Predict the 3D structure of the following.
Amino acid sequence: MAKIKFCALGGLGENGKNLYVFDIDNKIFILDAGTKHPSFDLYGIDIVIPDITYLLENKDRIQGIFLSHGHADHVGAVPEILKHINVGVYGTNFTLSLVELELAEAGMNIEDYKLYRININKDYNFGNVTVNFYSTSHSVPESCGIALKTSDGALVYAPDFNFASNTDPRYQVSFGRLVDVAKNGVLALFSESLGAGNIGRASDDYQMLHHVGELLQKSKRVIFSMFSNELQRIQKIINICIANGRRVAIIGLKVQKTINVAMKNGYLKIPEDKLVTLKYMTDEIKNDDDDLAIIITGNRHEPYYTLQRMTTGVDRLIKIKEDDQVIIISQPMPGTEILAQKVIGLLHRANAKVNIIPKSLLQSSHADSEDLKLLYNMLKPKYIVPVVGEYRHQVMQKNIALDAGYPSERILLLDNGDLITFENKQLQPGKQQIKSGDVLVDGSFVGDINEVVLKDREMLSHDGLILVVTTVDARLKKVIAGPKVVLKGFMAGDTAKEVIESIEEITVDIVEDYFKKKYIDWNDLKNDLRDAINKSVFKMTNKSPIIMPSLIDVESERE
């Protein structure tokens, strides 16, 4: 009988940062290692990755990292793990091609790491544990689910999938492999929750494509806004553009390498005579031919940011003009709604025709209630553990499982850091807690950003900074120059002038009072300056900027 432990270091109660740890008879298997986008109160933070302290403490037991697909929320943290734990990474060709891009971007030599391109039909043995992969249908090619076969039954990880019918083999579900996984019983199913609340979504993109086809037939230049991680949908748009006699150009600010990998490996196909490489605009080059279809791609806010540049004349490739047909397929993600609405307004001001594809016409790439019930029926797991999603999504999946006949005690709602144990095919009572959480990445700094730094950035974003520089001669006990008051991100105009005059007066008064003392404590002087200036500024403006007094002693400089 196997002793099995499971915990999530990310992916539960949140959207992104998926990292799931299976400990089977003292062997650790890492399934996915992703990032998530920072919330807007994390000022200046680029991405968020999982805390991997638990993995570092148990690195000698890790068998490998097994990847389901190439989206950043499932593979983006792989480079950070490999910096500390050089273990094998297993995934499909396309998934590992994207991982290689992540490694290169992190300045890591790909040749130093063990990247194993899997055969989807092959079993991978790690002692008494066998790892199976099975193909799934998702928005990127070669996505898969993962099964860990143990003596007590299989542990099936089913992230980001649906059961939509698909003619492209790189987006099809391998039902035969799923049936094989279920043969000897499934102890627990760890299935995605993000789509559990989908109601009334289209079962395919047919209606959307039909609508786009009609727009193409009656429009001049057409510009699409899309997310770069939806490669299957991008290919569909390319196909319908070509069918309507269009030449196609693809634009992406930061994702061109991903698009290039997809095209190089045949995941995106455009006939050479239909692919246009745009040149920078000049008096002669306008890139505004009526038969052009331009596909703007990017992540999160990037498609909207590019459109904004095109409407304001900043972009060097495209300028939005009257009668352009702009088709927005990229629905605003949480935190980008204000930018999206601003851009739509700018497009209308440019007299472009704006067509926003409603969410109801877009096929979801995540499992809805019917997909989940079908998966339950095929695998017949003893336990169901909702993963991949915010807590509300996990609860929605629990309700779906209850509706499918599963008792509440067999549906496990967990948080990141909860460690559960199965022995003799039974869930053991109680949970342990392991260290988990967010690690903030700011440029090349990983984990060096704490709450104090974030609080300072928040204050700077709200009320700005006041720098007060005063040159003194401590030996003569007199002010030599200044105070020089610099306002950054605070305010301008007459009120600013009044604030500066008040600060200058306060600074001189306090410094001269200190110079009357026999001994000067410079730290006390700075603190008193900061407090007095802060009180005065708040009284005048009802704002609390960061106050930074600086005292330069010319006597010290002479020495």
User: Anything to note?
Assistant: The chain has a mean pLDDT of 89. Residues 3-199+364-436 form a domain with the Metallo-beta-lactamase; Chain A fold (CATH 3.60.15.10). The chain has three domains: 3-199+364-436, 206-360, 451-558.
